[in-house]
Amino acid sequence: MTDPKSVPKICDLYRLQTQPYVRVWDLQKACVRDRKTNPDLRDVMLMVEHPPVYTLGQGADPNFVKFQPGPDHPPIWRVERGGEVTYHCPGQVVGYPILNLRRHRPDLHWYLRQLEAVIIGTLASFGLQGDRIPGLTGVWVEGRKVAAIGIKASRWITMHGFALNVCPDLSGFEQIVPCGIRDRAVGSMAQWHPEITVAMVQPVLEQHFATVFQFELLVQPADALWARFPSPWPSPSIHSAGSFCHNDAKDDGGARG
């Protein structure tokens, strides 16, 4: 008889290219709903870049946003993860693991440290030392925060994830207090490797993700995933000046750093 522990865990990997934030957010929620109904479904990793967008955790302080929301700025979405405001834009590698932590370890602090380990290993592959800071979530290089991590878990099924700054335009971070941390600069891998690209970093990150979580990654066609969840998604526009876009969603476990 085969020892179940010797059977590799399978994770389906979808490379979504560049997609609007809200479209992938809805996709995450659909994947989570499926796994609540059928916990035996395989884990999923969604890899993506986003056009410029700001997101706030469910309890985020809007005072960390330095501009008045409106059509002249990227959209802002309040989502169900924990934590404060952050920024996504092209040049970031964004990963959304949809994992059943009962297969791994049902412990959110452990999960956050594992995601940090994925980033630290990826940076090391490019000769950069990634550091943790006690009491904070994320990864820093020489005092600059290069990766933010924010999660939600429901029935130990995860969503949201991490964003690694590879070669983004960092000016968008100047419009916020990133993650509510005033005394820490934001950085990117390109500050040490000016020629680096997302195409260079993403496959390395995927491999570190597989190693840390002891997965066999199976690349799946993104079109098949979109075909399974064809429901319309809202336009990511500000509803009115001074307000933040949101979807109705109740959180039952999240963290952000």
Indicate the proportion of strand residues. 25-35%
Shape summary: globular
Any idea what the CATH architecture is? 2-Layer Sandwich
Instruction: Let me know the CATH homologous superfamily.
Output: Bira Bifunctional Protein, Domain 2
The low-pLDDT segments are: 234-254
The major β-sheet equals: 9 strands, mixed
Q: How many domains?
A: 1
The helix/strand order is: EHEEEEEHEEEEHEHEE
The end-to-end distance, rounded to whole angstroms, is: 44 Å
Average pLDDT for all residues? 85
Gyration radius, to the nearest Å?
A: 18 Å
Oligomer status: single chain
Decide which structural class fits the backbone. Answer: alpha/beta
Helix content percent band: 10-25%
Number of strands: 13
Can you tag this structure with a few keywords?
BirA Bifunctional Protein, domain 2; 13 strands; four-stranded mixed sheet; alpha/beta; globular; 27% strand
Can you offer a commentary on this structure?
It is a single chain. The protein has 257 residues and is of the alpha/beta class. The protein has one domain (9-228): 2-Layer Sandwich (BirA Bifunctional Protein, domain 2), CATH 3.30.930. 22% of the residues lie in helices and 27% in strands. The chain is built from four helices and 13 strands. The chain has helices at residues 21-37, 108-125, 198-212, 222-228, and strands at 9-18, 43-49, 53-56, 76-78, 86-88, 92-98, 139-141, 144-154, 157-165, 185-186, 215-220, 245-246, 254-256. The strands form two sheets. Strands 1, 2, 6, 7, 8, 9, 10, 11 and 13 form a nine-stranded mixed β-sheet that branches. The chain has a four-stranded mixed β-sheet with strand order 5-3-4-12, with no helix packed on it. A hairpin with a 2-residue loop joins strand 8 and strand 9 (157-165). Helix 2 (108-125) crosses helix 3 (198-212). The longest helix is centred in the middle third of the chain and has 18 residues, at 108-125. The protein is globular, with a radius of gyration of 18 Å. The protein starts with 8 loop residues before the first strand and ends with a strand. The relative contact order is 0.23. The model is unreliable at 234-254 (pLDDT under 50).
